[in-house]
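Most newcomers find our protein records easier to grasp once they have seen one. Read left to right, the backbone structure tokens trace the chain's path through space. Once this layout is familiar, the rest of the handout is easier to follow. The record below serves as our worked example for the rest of this section:


***
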Amino acid sequence: MKKIFLILAFSFSFSDVYSQRIAAGRLHSLGICVDGKVRSWGDGEFGQLGNKSISSATAPQSVAKIYGASLPPSGIVKVAGGEMHSMALKDDGLVYVWGRNNFNQLGDLVYNSNRPYSNVPVGVDYKRVSDIIDIAAGGNHCLAVKKNGTVMSWGYNYNGQCGVESTKTMSTTIIKNFSGVIKVAAGYDFSLALKSDGTVWSWGANSNGQLGNGTTTDNYIPAQVSNLTEVIAISGGFEYCIALKSDGTVWTWGKNQYGQLGNNTSTDSKVPIMVGTLSGISAIAAGYKHSLALQNDGTVWAWGDNQNGSLGNGTFTFSYVPIKVKNLTGIISISAGDDHSLVVKSDGTVWAWGANSNGQLGVGSNEKSNVPVNPFLSCQVVIKVNNPTENPIINFFPNPAFSKLNLNINSDYLGEKYVIYDNIGNSVLSGIVSSEKSIIELYDLSAGIYFFKVGTNFKQLILVNK
């Protein structure tokens, strides 16, 4: 039986999957320009900016040439920021890493005195780490999902965050007896995976219940998060987690000292709990101790620690419940760092707020901001798309789905033709939207990447896995 995983996009290209084009590390930031090249700014002490330097930068810098190559990485479709390292996924399924290497974050086991860091991108083990569809950077470890649904890990493993029953620093390793994964996320010293059946799995450190299994015992192999299904997105913070369900509700678990679970308390939770005041959410992001959620109308909500203005509401007061970020609309992507936040607007511009001690806001200074400001980024990170509030409502469900795709669409698209294309642009399936609730049968599609189009503006990327 085929399994369908849906990711929002607005053109027939992996490079325009805008939800993947920004990333906030601990004290640095990353963005992918429309040319597929990476810009970086903020803390650069261990080369995590990838610009041949070990200095911080208060304005965006171009990532340098790949180690041993004549060009910088291009065709990048996703970036991820760890504590002091950065990752990038290329459209050919290869992975690049740069920054600190004290625990083999570069994936080559040449670390410490031989290579304590790299300030330029390094290709990760091309023979093993290939056909990758998703990446995540933890505090000092890395995760990658292969096209076949297995997960690779490398780096620091003292708490089992690499999914291997050992405390040794790991080279690139496939997690045993674990498959069906479509997405990964990494907290500081633990890991998360989303399977195609909508379940969430976790492993690593668990001192505050961040594994969501009802205990505080570390786990060196993946185990299912308790009572959580129909999940479409996951995010790992310092010692807590966020999950988004297909019905638009948000669930959190783990440490809650600063209200980062959003349930109006400061009590930790060892199992998922619903953030009761949120609905209609399309994206989530977990920071060090603050959280973000993107609503379907393009507004952003934040909660948790706010001592550096990371909630973006014009104050420095903590909030134990979600509050709306000030003067911010038309948002299509979000990311949360240590104490700063990043978003992308539908016009392709990046906005940031929060801590700025190392220039992670990218505005040319080290002054923090408790309201959104615009980094000095010399390019768009996405091709301009319609404001989310300008698009008629279109929803696919369940997400993940199986051999039939359920389509909810408002009356603006009734009578419009829909087309599903393969990844080289050939039409493989088409029809007419005849009602606001439709079922599209996908039995004849083989495994691969497809694109759903209806009308002139709305396009949706579909990944089909057998």
